[in-house]
Amino acid sequence: MSQNLVAISSDFLTGFAALPRKVQGKVTEFINKFRSNPNSPGINYERIRDAVDKKICSVRIDDTYRGIVARQEEGGVYLLLWVDHHDEAYQWAKRKKCEINPKTGNIQVFDIQEVEFSHSQKNGEQQKGTGSGLFSHVSDDELFALGVPHDQLGLIRSFLSLEEFYASKSTMPEDAYEGLEWVANGFDPQEVIELFTPQNESVSKDDDFVTALQNPRSQKNFVIVEGEEELRRIMAEPLEKWRVFLHPTQRKIVTKSYSGAARILGGAGTGKTVVAMHRAKWLAGQLRGRDKLLFTTFTANLARDINENLRKICTVDEQKHIEVINLDAWVVQFLREQGYSYTIAYDDILKEIWEEAIALSGENLEYHDSFFSEEWSKVVNTHEAFSLELYMKAPRLGRGTRLNRRKRMQVWHVFQEYQNLMKEKKLRDVETAMYECRRILEKSPDRSRYSHIIVDEGQDLSMNAFRLLRAMAGAEHSNDIFIVGDAHQRIYKNKAVLSKCGINIRGRSSKLKINYRTTEEIRKFAFSLLKGIPFDDLDEEYDDGRGCQSLTHGNVPQVLNFRGVEEELDFVVSEITQLIEEGTNPKNICIVARTHRLLDDYIAQLNRAGVRTYEIKRSKLDDRSLDGVRVATMHRVKGLEFQCVFVVAVNKRILPLATAIDYADPVAEAEAMTAEKCLLYVALTRAQKSAYITSYGAQSEFLV
Hints:
Layout: E1 5-9, H1 10-17, H2 21-36, E2 45-47, E3 56-60, E4 65-72, E5 77-85, H3 86-94, E6 96-100, E7 107-111, H4 119-122, H5 140-145, H6 153-158, H7 162-167, H8 174-184, H9 189-196, H10 209-212, H11 216-219, E8 222-224, H12 228-236, H13 248-254, E9 262-266, H14 272-284, E10 293-296, H15 300-313, H16 316-320, E11 322-324, H17 327-337, E12 343-344, H18 347-361, H19 369-381, H20 388-393, H21 405-424, E13 427-428, H22 430-443, E14 452-455, H23 463-473, E15 481-485, E16 509-512, E17 514-515, H24 520-528, E18 549-550, E19 558-562, H25 565-581, E20 589-593, H26 596-608, E21 613-615, E22 629-633, E23 642-647, H27 666-684, E24 687-696
Parallel strand pairs: 1-5, 9-15, 9-16, 10-11, 10-14, 12-13, 14-15, 17-18, 19-24, 20-22, 20-23, 21-22, 23-24
Antiparallel strand pairs: 1-8, 2-3, 3-4, 4-5, 6-7
Helix pairs in contact: 2-12, 8-9, 13-14, 14-15, 17-22, 18-19, 18-21, 22-23, 24-27
C-alpha cells in the first residue's frame, strides 16, 4: 500500500450512481489517478467558503462536476465523500463535518445544525427521565455510546416525535441513526448498545484516521480501494453496496472462526445471503491447491443467482475454490460419477408412479397418492425404515392420519410396488437418492469432499439433505458447515432438526436483526400474516422472529379488492404508469402471482395494455440489461428484491391454492396452509419501498 490512503464512502457511490453515464466514466478515471497520487499537481483542490469543517474541500472532475474530499494531509488520508454538479456539491459539503467519534472510534460524516438548547443541555446536565423529548429517557452517556457525535447532542435532544427524527435521517451519521431508531421504537438503550458494539472495538486518537478506517463501523461506510480492477468492479454497480460494505454485526459473523458447524438465523431482508456469500469469499481466500468450498441451496434458480453475485465480489482465484450448485443437481452429478444411470423424478412423474403403485398393490386404502408420498418421505426416508420390519417400528410423530399395525402392512405393500416401479423405470425420488449418496460417501475411505460447506435457505432442506451434507463435509472440523436460514420463509414443507442430522451448532449460533430491504411498515404487515404460527430455529428450539427492525419507513402495504380481473388490471396498470412517470425504473417493479398459469394471463393483459414485461423464469436469471416490468411466481421471486411489488390475484382458492392443500390429513393441511402463508410473506418482503396486495371477487382468507 502507498504512503497515502484513499477511501471511498458509501455516500460517494450514491452520488456517483445519479450522474450521467459519460460523467461517471470521467469520475472513475479521476479516482484511479487520485488513488495513485492524491497530491499530484493535476488535482485541483478548492476550499469551500464558510465550510464548518476545514478538512473538507472540493476537487475538479470537469468544468461542471466536483468531488467532495475530506483531506488529512499530515496523516496521508483522503476520503472521497460526495460527487455532484458544482453548486449542489458545494451545498452538500457546506454544513458537513467529518471526524472520528471519540467514543466508538469510527469515522462519521454528519451535518452541523443550529438547535435551540435548554439551560441543562448547555451545561451538560441532561439525565434520564428529564424533559419531554423523544430521547429524554436516555442519558448523554448512552447517546454517546450509541454513536451520537457531541456536536449533534442538541439536535437529538430536540426531537419531540418519531416523524421529526425520521425526517432528519440524512443529517446524522448512519451508525448513530441506526441505534437511535431502535431506541425510539421501544428497545432498551443498553440492549441496543450491546447489539451494535463490535467485539474488541478499538478507539483511535482523534486524528488517527488510518486506524479509524480499520474500525468495523467505519468499514460499513468506507472502503479502501487497493487496485484498479477492484475500483472498476465497485464503480460498475455503485448501488449494489452489499458487495462492498458490511454492517459490523455481519462482518463479525463473516470473519469468525468456528470450531465446527454454525447456524445464522434472520428474517427476510436481514442480509443472510449476503453474509453467506461474503463468508464464502473469506473462506475461499484461505484455501490452497485443489481444496474446495461448496455453496449450496435448495433450488436451481437461487444457486444461479448466488453464482452470478459471487462473481461480483470474488477474485478469479477465489472463484476457482468455490463450487455453487443446488443440492439436487449435486446428487445427480455425484451418482453419475459413481456409475449410476437412474434419473431423479419429480412432481407429475412421481404422482403417476404412486397412482400405479396403489393400483398394483391391490390394497383397498382410501388414501390419496399425496399421503403415500408424504409417508415415504417423512417416515420411511427420514427414519431410514427401508424394510417392513423397520417401518413397523418407525415413529410417525407429526403425521395426522393414524395407522394401526394392519394398515401399516397394507401401506408397506404400496411401498414395495413403488420401489419395484422405480427400479424398473430407473428412477429415484430425490430423498432416496440423497440417502444412497450418503451411504456411498460413508463407505469411502476419503469421504470428505469439501473443506467447507455453506448452505443458503437452510429451512428448505430435509433431514436427508443435512445428513448428506454432514457426510460430504466429513468428520467435524473448524468452519465445516455454515447454515443460514429462516423458518418463516419455509415454502417447500421440508423440515429438519440439525442436531438429529449429526450437525451440532450449540454455542455457534447468531441472529441477524437489522432489516436492510423493506420499510418497517412492510416488514410489520408481512410478519403479522404469520401471527400465531410456531416456527422452529432449524434445530430443537423455537424462533419467534421478534427483535428485528427496519431502518427505513414508508406507507403500509395497500390491500385492495376489485369486482373483477379487468378492474384489478386497470388499477395495476395505472399505478405502474404513475410509478414510472415519477422516476421508478420498470426493472424495479415486480408483479407476483401464485401460479404460472395466472402469470401467463397477466403478462398477456399487461402487454395488451401497453406495459412491457419481462418474466423471471425458473430456468434463468433476472437479466438486468433487458427492459420491462418484472413478473414472477411467488416461488421464483424468492431471493430477489424490487422497489415496488404487486402481489396480484390474492383470491379465495388461489391463496391458499386449493390443489396444494391435503384436507384429508389435518397435520398435512396445517403444514400446507403455513407454507402458503409463508409464500405471501416472502412475496411481500421482496419490496423495498411499496407493496400492493390486490384481489378480485372473493378475497383470500389470509386477508379477511
